[in-house]
Amino acid sequence: MALDTLFDSLVELLARNGLITAFLFVGLVLALSNWLSKVVTRGQVHGSAVAIAAGLVLAYFGGVATGGSKGLADVGLFAGVGLLGGAMFRDFAIVATAYGADLGALRQAGWVGALSVVIGVVLSFVVGAAVAVAFGFTDPIAVTTIGAGAATYIVGPVTGTALGASSDVVALSVAAGLTKSILVMIGTPLVAKRIGLDNAHSALIYGGLMGTTSGVAAGLAATDPKLVPYGAMTATFYTGVGCLLGPSVLYFLVAAIL
How far apart, in whole angstroms, are the C-alpha atoms of residue 132 and residue 115? Predict the structure, then answer.
């Protein structure tokens, strides 16, 4: 009986301090994901990608178990996850990332590096939007959100929130971005030699074209750790450009076409 009382008190304490519990829970998931990445995939799949996949699975089962619409946040013990994963913390992380970017370093890549960022965003968006249309989506908001998700799993939710997309569409955009991230992680070391990805300048351009920071960082780490800062830098700018173009220029273009 004493153990039951202690357990109930602990659960009540964690539920009452939802945000702290969410930080603790996410930290444990990240630690386990990094361990799985190192032991099971031998670094081929970055820990962040494993964590995102685990989050999607947990959200699914949380929604099924409770019949709710907020995934794991519908479980009382993990209600704080809804706040931690909400728009406020997401936008804070994006702004913090943008402040960490060095414009002077981007200038070193020249106009080719800057152009690679724009080309990368637009190309990924077009592919994602085309896939969305092929699967029967005709609403400009849904098509734009999924197309933005193909850019990165950050650009998708930002665009979807700005345009008022449904939670289902936003989830699809995250899944599209996660798929791209994993493909980049695995594919980068396999094609590095063929595309001349062996110097800082090419890494800058590659990061601008691919854009997914976690995917580029992990892929370059498996290729040559010295290239990681250069690729990750332009990939960071890619995310910012995508968040600017997604809910504005790209949306208006999609709306005009559809």
Answer: 26
Q: Is residue 95 part of a domain?
A: no
In the predicted structure, residue 213 carries a pLDDT above the cut 90: no
Query: From CA 137, how far away is CA 45, in angstroms rounded?
Result: 30
pTM strictly above 0.70: no
Q: Which of 3-7, 40-44, 103-107, 212-216 has the lowest mean pLDDT?
A: 103-107
State the residue for tokens 């290239």: 227
115 and 22 co-located in one domain: no
> What's the whole-number average pLDDT of the chain?
81
Report the number of distinct structural domains present in the chain.
2
| C-alpha to C-alpha distances, 109 to 24, 116, 151, nearest whole angstrom | 40, 10, 21
Query: How far is it, in rounded angstroms, from Cα 166 to Cα 170?
Result: 6
Instruction: Confirm if 217 and 235 have CB atoms less than 8 A apart.
Output: yes
Residue 158 contacts residue 246 (beta carbons within 8 Å): yes
